[in-house]
Amino acid sequence: MNTDYRDKRPFKAKGVRQSFSYAFEGIKHTIMTERNMRIHMWISILVIGTGFVLKITALEWLFVLIAVGGVISLELINTALERLVDLATGDYHPLAKQAKDVAAGAVMVYALLSIIIGLIIFLPKLIG
């Protein structure tokens, strides 16, 4: 894969398709190799299914989809950062550990926020 941005050509349909292909390849790789991504995916499927069953409003769907998409996106970024750190150094380094820990912390913060959003939306419907 060429990463030289000076070699970019004007919009070409084949290039756009290839970009989507690379993106889906990255998502597939992350699902296949990262346990936390699989957990996020299963919970997302459960939450979306629950949203259909409970017939949540359009506004509630917006919050749910932003929460789900944010967690999955951050997990993808976290995985990319982990791979870059591993590529940069094969040895243990405190800064490498900190970079990985901080990225994982970002995912955790957003996941906790998503749980709170889910509770605010779904709990009243489930107990009421």
Summary, kept brief:
The chain has 128 residues and is mostly helical. It has four helices and no strands.
What does this molecule look like?
By secondary structure, this protein is mainly α. Helix content is 82%, strand content 0%. It is built from 4 helices and no strands. The protein has helices at residues 13-33, 35-53, 58-88, 94-127. Helix 1 packs across helix 2 (35-53), helix 2 (35-53) runs antiparallel to helix 3 (58-88) and helix 3 packs antiparallel against helix 4. The protein starts with 12 loop residues before the first helix and ends with a helix. The mean pLDDT is 93.
Radius of gyration: 18 Å
Distance between the termini: 54 Å
Structural class comes to mainly alpha
* Helix share bin: over 70%
> Strand count, sense and closure of the main sheet?
none
Shape: globular
* Quaternary assembly: single chain
Element order: H for helix, E for strand: HHHH
